Structure formats: structure tokens, C-alpha cells
Amino acid sequence: MENRPLEYDYTVTKMFMFTTIALGIVGMLIGVILAFQLAFPGLNLMLGEGLAEYTNFSRLRPLHTDAVIFGFTLSGVFATWYYVGQRVLKVSMAESRLLMLLGKLHFWLYLITVVAVVVSLFAGVTTSKEYAEFEWPIDIAIVIVWVIFGLSMFGLIGIRREKSLYISVWYYIATFLGIAMLYLFNNMEIPTMLASAPDGSHVGGNWWHSISMYAGTNDALVQWWYGHNAVAFGFTVPIIAMIYYFLPKESGQAIYSYKLSLLSFWGLMFVYLWAGGHHLLYSTVPDWVQTMGSIFSIILILPSWGSAINMLLTMKGEWQQVAASPLIKFMVLASTFYMFSTLEGPIQAIKSVNAIAHFTDWIVGHVHDGVLGWVGFMIMAALFHMAPRVFKREIYSKSLMTAQFWIQTLGVVLYFTSMWIAGITQGMMWRAHDEFGNLAYSFIDTVTVLHPYYTIRGVGGLLYLVGFLMFTYNIYKTMSARPIEESELQSASPMGA
Questions:
Q1: Residue 146 CB partners (closer than 8 Å, separation 6+)
Q2: Is 64 labeled as ligand-binding?
Q3: This model's pTM is above 0.85
């Protein structure tokens, strides 16, 4: 019998690649609109007063965050799983009709849920909880989509030929389990049509409306346990899974230390879950919870930097590849931004620093140097690596890829530096007082001072969006570029995939 290489089936991978790109454009475009709305408030009325309800900041902001987190990023996670999973487990989805069915069902239900999210948020139907704005019918749909994803993932693992689970698979499993736990507990809610007032009368309200099972301080505690760990298991864990696969494959270098990858994995699992309290410093939550959040945030530097240093040392002795390969540039700079972001966050969690930073734009800058520099760069790098192998076509233009890299890097630097300056300026002005103890500045004074930085932030975001459109064009043209066979591409390990 002829011993031919395994033919992987990328049908579902392609579906999620397209949604990653589409939702990335939507999320980033809305983000740029919001950035310029803050600098030029008249843009809130960009389609006239009649439609201002749908174009103002408060209506668009949850659409931006959810499109980037649950649209662009999660689609990227799904796309890379259906690619990486097959290759490191040595099994094709085409070998199981059930797995193919689950994969396609996963995609279409996910797409329907995305449409429901967009429509409901545009309509102002929201629970008003950060990163958890969806009402109960959509929450149920999301749980169903997530369960199908889990069945598909563990089904593939169950029929694998490669008995050892490569480290990337560990991180994908953790992503599934972590988000499942977080989402279920934070979204415990009761439809108001089932609720009763204290006197026993029916509360009423729209059929889709719900109220949280938690209240007050407890609600805040659960919300920011969820909110911070949604970053952990949505923006950190699966992106590490990607880079542990794609950086060795693209560079031809083995991971610097497999033991360090495992140590960092367990460190992240145990430490990240306790750090959410740093969002609630100087609030009504117990002081020991605030202190614990700060302490665990500082400890979190160790496993985070363990992962990032492991990635950078993977390139030891091969740094010339950074100059030669735009794809390696993306991944090395992504690792560097990961280091910056996971040092900056713990610093902001120190109580004395948080007294200045909280509620300021420095927090916004921290979020975006991580999301744009770490998450965005790594997902684009992953799709660039996958495209020739999925479409059996040569990358259309490496020079366009290089231009995109520098444009987006400039955009990220403009974004986070403007927000650092704006945030620290805000914090200092809010605290300043005269010799009589009166506040030295009114709130509008800070708004006026920050206008140039808000404009720079908008320009930075626009540059990043332009780069993403260049990325989209490059992938689109790749689909009709010169045909190639995978044997023509470099095929380094992990796991000999």
C-alpha cells in the first residue's frame, strides 16, 4: 500500500479565515470612528440627528469591543485551531463525517449568532455589562456554539494518531475550558418575564430582557473576575498557542525550552484567575480582595514573561530572519508587545499607580498595545502562514506585507504613546489642588488639554486599519496567485507536522 502524506481538509479553516478578516475590518473601522468621535464630537451626528441614536459613541462602543474580541479574535482562534489541530494531531477532518458536520455547524451557528449580536447592539438591547452585553437568548446561542466547538476539538483529539499533545493543543484546550467557565458564571441571569417584585406582582418588560443573579459588589466581583480572565483566555492563552506553532514552523527553529512552555502554562492557569480584583481598587469590594488582585497581578509577570522570552529565544542564532522575513517580523514584534503589555498591566495594578491610572486613557493605551501589537499581529501572521498551505498559492506580495508591517507598527506606537501621555496627564490633573484644597482643574480643562492626543490616537488607529486593509488585499490576491505545492514551502517541526 502506498504511504502517501496525509491530506488535511481546510474547508472549515477557510470559512473562519474569511470571518476573521471581515469582522476585523468591521471592528477596526468602528474603532477608528470612535477614536475620531472622541477628538471631534460632532462626528456623533455624522448621519444626521435622526440617526444619531445609532451612530453615537455609546451605541458603537460595545460593537467595537465585541467585534474585536468575539468576532476578529475568536474567529482567528477557530481558524487556527482547525488548521493547527489537524497537523499536530496527524489526523484530517475529512476522515470523520461527524467532525466535518460539527465543524460546519460550528461555523454557521457562530455566524448566525454574530448577526444577532450586531443587530441587538445596534438596537440598544444590552445588559450593560462590559464584554457581556448580550441578553439571555444570545447567551444561550453562544453556549451552544461553544459546546459544539468543544465537541469538535475533543473529537479531533480523540481520533489523533500523534499520541503526544503538542503544547499548542494544551493552550487551545485551556481556552475552551476557561471561557466556558467564565461565560457561564458571569452570565447567570433571570429573564424579567419570570421575575416577581417584592409584593409578588409581575415585573414585566420585554421578553428578551434579563437581570443578573448577582447584585452590587458581588456583581462587580464576578464581572471583573470574568472581564479580566476573558482577556486571559481570549487574548493571551490562544495567541500563545498560535505562536508556539507558527514561529517554529516559519523560522525552522525548535522552541527554545519545552519545559519553560509547560511551566509558563501552569503559571498562567493558576495565577491569572486571581488577578481580576485589580479592576476594583478603591471600590466597595473587601480590601483583601483588592490587595490579592494587585499581588497576583505582579506575580503574573513571571509566567507571562516566561512565555514571551521563550518565544524570543526560539530565534537565538537566527536573528537575520527578522530582517529577511516580514512574517518573522510580525511574530517577534508580537512577542515584544506581549512583554510590554504584561509588564504594563501589573504596574497599573499597584495601588499607588492605580490611584493615578484608573479611569484614564492610560488604561485604554494598555489594552490596545496588547490587542493591536500582540493579538492583531499574531493572528495576521498566522493567516499569512496558513494562506499558501490552505489555498495552495504563493503569497501575492511580500513587499506589501513589509509595508503593512511598518505602517501598522507606526500606528500602534502612535496609539499607545498618545494614550500614555493623555492618561498620566488626566490622572495628575484630576488630583491637582490649590492651597485651599480645592480642585485646580475642572473636568472640561482636562478634555481641552487632551484633544491633540485624541487626534494622534485616531491617526494611529487609522494607520492600523489601512494596514489591515492591505493585509486583506494581499490575502485576496493570494487566492489567485501562482499555484504551489506544500513541498515547496518550508516544513519545520513542531511534531513534524
A1: 176, 179, 180, 183
A2: yes
A3: yes
Domain with residue 402: its CATH number is 1.20.210.10
Query: 3-state DSSP call for residue 56?
Result: coil
The per-residue pLDDT for range 351-387, each reduced to its tens digit, is 999 999 999 999 999 999 999 999 999 999 999 999 9
Average of pLDDT values for 446-451? Answer: 94
* Distance (Å, whole) CA 128 – CA 121: 10
8 A C-beta contact, residue 106 and residue 93: no
> Is residue 4 in a domain?
no
Domain span holding position 298: 10-196+205-488
433 is in an annotated binding site: no
CA 422/CA 458 separation, integer angstroms: 13
CA distance 386 to 379: 10
> Does 385 carry a binding-site annotation?
no
Indicate whether 424 belongs to any domain: yes
Q: Rounded CA gap, 90 and 163, in Å?
A: 9
Q: What angle do CA 293, 299, 304 make, to 5 degrees?
A: 115
SS3 of residue 63 by DSSP: helix
Q: Is 393 helix (H, G, I), strand (E, B) or coil?
A: strand
Question: Under DSSP, is residue 486 helix (H, G, I), strand (E, B) or coil?
Answer: helix
Residue 494 forms part of a structural domain: no
CA-nearest of 347, 343, 363, 493 to 420 is 363
Summarize pLDDT for 219-269 with one digit per residue, the tens. Answer: 999 999 999 999 999 999 999 999 999 999 999 999 999 899 999 999 999
When divided into structural domains, the chain yields a total of: 1
Check the annotation: does 228 bind a ligand: yes
CA distance linking residue 225 with residue 232, whole number of Å: 11
**pLDDT at residue 493 greater than cutoff 50:** no
325 by Cβ neighbours in 10 Å (0-12 / 13-18 / 19+) ranks as middle
CA-closest candidate to residue 265, choices 120, 168, 161:
168
